[in-house]
Amino acid sequence: MGAYILRRLLLVIPTLFGVMLVNFALTQFVPGGPIEQVAAQLEGGGDSLGNLTGANSDGMPTDSGGSSYSGARGLPPEFLAELEVEFGFARFICEPDYTGSTAVRVMARSEQCEKEMISGTERFLIMMGKYLTFDFGQSYFRSISVTDLILEKMPVSITLGLWSTLLAYLISIPLGIRKAMRDGSSFDTWTSGIVIAAYSIPSFLFAILLMVVFAGGSYFQWFPLRGLTSENWAQLSVFGKVKDYLWHIILPVTAQMISGFATLTLLTKNSFLDEIKKQYVLTARAKGLSETRVLYGHVFRNAMMLVIAGFPAVFMGVFFGSSLLIETIFSLDGLGQLAFKSAVERDYPVMFGTLFAFGLVGLVIGLLSDLMYVLVDPRIDFANREG
């Protein structure tokens, strides 16, 4: 088992490298880089995409007039050169007398220094070298490191992802087992209708429905409209803080888990139905074992294999799938909104830093899922697997 875990951990590096390479390459073809964004804002043009006329192969916009940035015609070239160096798109090559002793802003204006553009390949390798030491750099547009920014937004995403996944499993597994045991009954029929309806309703639409009905939209004002805590949260007692926190998360967590709950319920039911029909179940019943003993002593472990196999997909789907819409509707400032804003602003350190961090989390969760296989069914031996 130790050798298998080591192999899987070693595979994390090339897998992450491939994911990062594909996404980095794609950004080179997206018009409007971070420097264009800054130029557009300083020029009063808003979004750089409105002023953009084209982009070169390195993702650096160009125009027909020879300027490097179509939205920056009124900005000093020295300022743009400094931005290129600060954002890592270029470096200054200076005479020996100036190297290492002159400030960047002075070097940008010095005739002794020449700007040298850094290729996309070199920028990618530099970025990955830093990421291997978990140095994600600093946001282009916020005076904060990417790590601190992620940690700042993490509580919202942890709340939505963790509680939604936990509740989905706590509800779906017992319900799926019950539906399998009463397959074809009226209970199975009307619960299937509820499950199918839950699966069909988009989470954001269900979130709006919850808000309209229970958050003072048109009917009841039982829950708050926004945020994870109240304004007076710091002054509350420990019990009051817990109560206030749970009061705030009920609606967003319910909206977040709705689709995952439906999928997991049907998966559990079908898995149990498949196992119940097998020969070993008939043999166990013929020996006089109680239905509870047959179900939880024999069927449960085998039936749960598919459910456990789907855990990484369910967790990552709930954690990231609809977080942006849920965060927007309930005014929660989490990783979903951070990822969206960083993509719009072309804040590359935040974009790639979060992609690397959560890509790593996803791969580790996949490994944990395999280890849970062994916990559920000791007959599985990953140590003898090839490759």
From TrEMBL:
InterPro entries: MetI-like (IPR000515), MetI-like_sf (IPR035906). PROSITE patterns: ABC_TM1 (PS50928). It is found in: Cell membrane. It is a multi-pass membrane protein. Pfam families: BPD_transp_1. Residues 154-373 form the ABC transmembrane type-1 domain. Belongs to the binding-protein-dependent transport system permease family. This is ABC transporter permease subunit. It comes from Pseudogemmobacter lacusdianii.
